[in-house]
TrEMBL record:
Residue ranges occupied by any Peptidase S9A N-terminal domain in the UniProt entry: 20-438
Residue span(s) of domain Peptidase S9 prolyl oligopeptidase catalytic: 499-713
Keywords associated with the record: Hydrolase, Protease, Serine protease
Region called Disordered, residue ranges: 1-33
Family membership noted in the UniProt record: Belongs to the peptidase S9A family.
Organism, as annotated: Marilutibacter chinensis
Protein name in UniProt: S9 family peptidase
Gene3D superfamilies, alphabetized: alpha/beta hydrolase, Prolyl oligopeptidase, N-terminal domain
Length: 720
């Protein structure tokens, strides 16, 4: 394969108009312990998103991005067409049954948003028959809950974050977001008439639960400034929202809050959790009153509980169970003293969650960096026969799917790998029969053309880090290929080796795609997470750099043809590796990056700050301040040659505020001694997740990939 002959030429930053030059304005950021830092671009912060000078700078950066990308527009269009061309546009999800209805999500050709629908259960009706009807565009008997295309018409951004139907199936509550800031408004729809109720609840989280009276909705109210989930309230349909009753208020701003129903639907539960602690309080769904604490919160004790068949079943790290164990407790329990061990803790197995059924329990686990499902037959709390769900490949992702009803012998689970599209299986735990309900259709894709590998890279402190790879069959490991390496590595969030249809366009051009399962995630258990946070955070960055060096040494890539990609906390990773090992990367792709760590964590008014002191540290304490300052990407920019970069953000992002990457790029332009291009793209209508709609986000991905392919000198033509 040739390299850059088919790629439009944009040689360097020197060939382009001068990039925007943001004004410097002196500003001192002070810490309570007396430390001070100069932040000359602090003025780019505008909480209201209305400052004309700030908006003008962002628009100037977008205009510069347009100029950079103009010659690459044909390649961007080609990539977009390829990515969208693999999508079966009139596709639908696997239906699941609940309370006598089959629920599903479907898309229509050419439409950006889903339709949420349902059909009544009847003799001869099952998931496959409904799928077949949907595939044939036969919607007879369908009840449309929400047509999001109609709701989103004329709007730059629209998202339905959650929806819930009353127990009598007559009223729908749904939460909508109009700008991506994740401040939702709850609306109500009469499913018998199709009319909307006048009730509207603003400023809430997308987390809704109905009581059994079919009139009372429990919801979580956000703090209007920090957006923290602070109060649970209840609204009675048809009454003034101003009269909504406060049910619970959380005063510790290091805790998140959520609400839900138990597996048997007998209890409504309010859960609060910080990085290192959790607490659950529940009340009967039939007549919600006082919410009783299941076990009082304790630092370094986490638990999550579900109720079924007259008992609580609890996943917890109590009593030193670092990788978690499963215990049981009687229904009336309010203390850990009542907890009885059932599934023991193991040092080599991390328990990730469970699902309760009549007659068996499915437990999600992680071992050696891979997921698996354990089936335990019998009653929770008692010894029972066990077996594991079999995997089909050496590197894969497996997890529980939607199992809405407990009274079944059928377990649904999802399966995917870097070569296998998302698949939903149904396993009969009694007979062992496995049935594939659906595999994501990927038009023109043949998995036989691709190869996935699982490798282990030994990093600088001797730790073995798992790496998942995929490339097109016929790839020669001769040290000449281009590589895209991805990772996240924070919050204990595991990046599993699943199928990514957009990556196929890179593989077909001879690239290798790698996922580095670095510390800070939880792929290898809780210790893997603990070794990548607080005073161990730099392990996340050095792991990523050392994986890159390993892959180059193993000749999966040329040393001058490596790209790195990460977003949000993964964008922090990108900023850190750019400072620490700029020569290891030719191009860095960084989306909604968390790059101004110290300033953000010093400001409790910014959403997420206080919740995350146990993730990053509290810089009001000098030791944490100094450590965070030693890696914060914005603070560690210096005069050196940086890789080419594509940095993206959303103006309305509530998780990583737009001004972090804006300031980062402005300072980077001052200090970068290379002639590599830096593109900064701000989506003026979107938040943390980018543009809404299933196709619009692929346009953003195609633009970013076009920039990367050009920088790596990859032939624009697909392999055939």
């Amino acid at each position: 394969m040739s390299l850059s002959t088919a790629v439009p030429t944009v040689a360097s930053a020197a060939d382009l108009p001068a990039p925007p030059d943001a004004e410097k304005r002196p500003h001192v950021v002070k810490a309570p312990h007396g430390a001070e830092r100069q932040d000359e671009y602090y003025w780019l912060r505008d909480d209201e998103r209305g400052d004309k000078a700030v908006l003008a700078y962002l628009e100037a950066e977008n205009a510069y991005a347009d100029a950079v990308m103009a010659p690459l527009k044909p390649l961007e269009d080609t990539l977009f067409d390829e990515i969208v061309g693999r999508i079966k546009q009139d596709d639908s999800s696997v239906p699941y049954r609940k309370h006598g209805w089959w629920y599903y999500t479907r898309f229509a050709t050419g439409q950006d948003y889903p339709v949420y629908g349902r059909r009544r259960d009847a003799a001869g009706v099952d998931a496959l028959s409904i799928q077949k009807a949907n595939d044939a565009d036969d919607f007879a008997g369908e009840e449309v809950l929400l047509d999001v295309n109609a709701l989103a018409a004329g709007k730059d951004y629209y998202n339905v974050g959650d929806w819930e139907v009353t127990r009598d199936d007559k009223v729908l509550a749904y939460a909508e977001d109009l700008n991506g800031r994740r401040q939702y408004t709850v609306r109500f729809k009469d499913l018998e008439t199709g009319e909307l109720y006048p009730d509207q609840i603003k400023g809430v989280s997308p987390n809704l639960v109905w009581a059994d009276d079919n009139r009372t909705l429990f919801y979580v109210e956000n703090d209007p400034e920090t957006l923290l989930t602070v109060r649970v309230k209840k609204h009675v349909l048809g009454t003034p929202v101003a009269n909504d009753v406060l049910v619970y208020e959380e005063h510790d701003d290091s805790f998140y809050m959520h609400i839900g129903k138990t597996r048997d639907e007998k209890f409504i539960c309010i859960g609060v959790e910080s990085t290192v602690s959790s607490e659950l309080r529940c009340s009967p769904a039939a007549d919600p009153g006082e919410f009783t604490v299941l076990a009082p919160r304790e630092r370094d004790v986490e638990y999550d509980a579900d109720h079924h068949d007259g008992r609580w079943v609890i996943v917890t790290n109590a009593d030193g169970a670092k990788n978690f164990k499963v215990v049981t407790a009687p229904t009336g329990s309010t203390s850990r003293k009542d907890w009885k061990d059932w599934i023991a803790h193991r040092d080599d197995v991390f328990i990730d969650g469970l699902e309760l059924f009549d007659g068996f329990t499915a437990i999600g686990e992680r071992s050696e960096g891979l997921e698996r499902l354990r089936i335990v037959r019998g009653t929770p709390g008692q010894p029972g026969e066990e077996e594991y769900v079999k995997a089909d490949e050496p590197a894969y992702s497996m997890g529980l799917s939607t199992n809405a009803e407990p009274d079944t012998e059928l377990l649904r689970y999802g399966y995917t790998s870097m070569t296998t599209p998302d698949t939903v299986y149904e396993l009969n735990v009694k007979t062992g029969e496995r049935r594939m309900l659906k595999r994501e259709p990927v038009i023109g894709y043949d998995p036989a053309r691709y190869v996935t590998e699982r490798l282990w890279a030994t990093v600088r402190d001797g730790t073995r880090v798992p790496v998942s790879l995929v490339y097109r069959k016929g790839f020669e490991r001769d040290g000449s290929a281009a590589l895209l390496q991805y990772a996240y590595g924070s919050y204990g969030s595991s990046t599993d080796p699943g199928f990514n249809s957009t990556v196929v366009s890179l593989l077909d051009r001879g690239m290798v795609y790698a996922i580095a399962h670095i510390r800070g995630g939880q792929e290898m258990g809780r210790a893997w997470y603990d070794d990548g946070k607080l005073f161990h955070k730099k392990n996340t960055f050095t792991d990523f750099i050392d994986v890159t060096k390993f892959l180059v040494e193993q000749k999966y890539a040329a040393p001058d043809r490596v790209a790195a990609y990460g977003g949000s906390a993964g964008g922090l990773l990108m900023g850190a590796i750019a400072n620490m090992a700029p020569d290891s990367y030719r191009v860095i792709l960084s989306q909604v990056p968390f790059v101004d760590v110290v300033t953000t964590m010093l400001d409790p008014s910014i959403p997420l700050t206080t919740n995350e002191y146990d993730e990053w540290g509290n810089p009001e304490q000098k030791a944490y301040y100094d450590y965070m300052l030693s890696y914060s990407p914005y603070d560690n920019l210096k005069a050196q040659a940086y890789p080419a970069m594509f940095v993206g953000t959303g103006l309305w992002d509530s998780q990583v505020q737009y001004w972090e990457p804006a300031k980062y790029v402005a300072r980077l332009r001052d200090l970068d001694t290379s002639d590599h291009i830096v593109v900064f793209r701000t989506n003026m209508e979107a938040g943390h997740g980018g543009k809404s709609g299933r196709f619009r986000r692929f346009r953003e991905r195609a633009e970013m990939y076009a920039f990367m392919l050009h920088q790596l000198g990859v032939d624009a033509q697909e392999a055939r």
